[in-house]
Design brief:
Layout: H1 6-9, E1 12-13, H2 16-39, H3 43-49, H4 51-61, E2 64-65, H5 76-97, H6 114-126, H7 152-176, H8 192-227, H9 249-256, H10 262-300, H11 311-330
Parallel strand pairs: 1-2
Helix pairs in contact: 2-4, 2-5, 2-6, 3-5, 4-5, 5-10, 7-8
């Protein structure tokens, strides 16, 4: 089977029609998977259901191209879309193989109605940290006094401020890029010291953009959960804890960076492999799941992957880079 190249085989952009035909069915299967893990602790039922969201996800990402048609400047929308879809599939797989039935802690000892379970399934779809759930025990949450989620107006202002900061950072990074039409972040026309200094600055800005994007997305989900689903603000503590103050890699990854995907990677691959190889399998399985999800994001850019690179895209990238260098040299 030939894997479709998202850059050239997806002719449909996201419209109301493609949303209803491709994207909505995928999200409905995600909701259904969440419902199943709430109502039954039997793995066979969830495993039988798993191929449905898997096929729905494949159908969606290979049929619809986000962004603006053939404009490569918006391919990052596909990157984000594949990261989202890949993490959701990994999460559904974790739900399929888990032995326990998920419950909100406030529901323990009670038998919720079907409508309550539906509401809980929606909350489960957007809650990736497990705070207030039986599956979230042991997950680290930064203890920050008076977080923005404690006040709706502060949270709204925080979201607006982060969007503005993201836009300014994005514009600055694009301005510093040596090639405005694609290519490398290394300006070969500069001396080595200036070249690597500029590349480091661009890398820092892009990392800050990732931080802002994740934080803003989390706050938006928190806004929905708290003020629409009537969730407790304590269930949505800050997702970051000043990662720039980290004193070690363990401090950075274990406490200060976001823990959104932690449970997903642990249940999808870390836990199963730990049964065979104990702690080494747990660690390697978790990193493997993380690598697969992030590799899907790269594939979504339509330029092949780390192992199989699209030769046509590679040739076009080289041609574009050479043309840009000629323009820069002439200027």
């Amino acid at each position: 089977m030939t894997i479709p190249d998202l850059a050239f085989d997806c002719e449909d952009t996201l419209t109301w029609h493609t949303f209803l035909v491709f994207q909505l069915p995928f999200f409905l299967t995600y909701q259904m998977a969440a419902f199943l893990v709430l109502v039954t602790g039997r793995r066979p039922f969830r495993l039988i259901f798993f191929p449905i969201p898997l096929w729905s996800a494949y159908r969606f990402v290979t049929s619809v191209k986000l962004g603006r048609g053939d404009d490569p400047r918006y391919d990052y929308w596909n990157h984000g879309n594949l990261l989202m879809v890949g993490s959701i599939i990994a999460r559904i797989w974790g739900w399929s193989i888990t032995a326990e039935k998920y419950q909100r802690m406030k529901r323990v000892g009670h038998r919720p109605s079907v409508m309550t379970t539906l509401v809980d399934s929606f909350e489960l779809c957007i809650n990736t940290r497990g705070i207030g759930w039986n599956w979230g025990k042991g997950n680290y949450a930064p203890a920050i006094p008076n977080p923005p989620t404690s006040n709706p107006w502060r949270l709204a202002l925080s979201i607006i401020g982060q969007i503005v900061a993201f836009d300014l950072t994005h514009v600055t990074a694009k301005y510093l890029l040596p090639l405005q039409c694609g290519g490398t972040i290394f300006n070969l026309l500069l001396p080595r010291v200036q070249r690597y200094t500029l590349a480091s600055a661009i890398s820092f800005l892009l990392g800050f953009m990732i931080y802002l994007f994740i934080n803003t997305s989390y706050d938006l989900l928190g806004l929905i959960a708290i003020f629409v689903l009537r969730d407790s603000p304590s269930s949505w503590p800050p997702i970051f804890k000043s990662p720039w103050l980290s004193i070690s890699l363990a401090d950075f990854w274990g406490k200060r960076w976001h823990q959104v995907f932690r449970h997903i990677f642990l249940t999808a691959a870390g836990g199963p492999l730990s049964l065979l190889f104990r702690r080494p399998g747990f660690v390697m399985g978790s990193f493997f799941a993380s690598g697969v999800v992030h590799a899907l994001g790269v594939w979504g850019m339509g330029r092949g992957g780390d192992f199989v690179r699209d030769k046509r895209v590679a040739r076009e990238s080289v041609d574009i880079e050479l043309d840009c260098r000629v323009v820069q040299h002439d200027v």
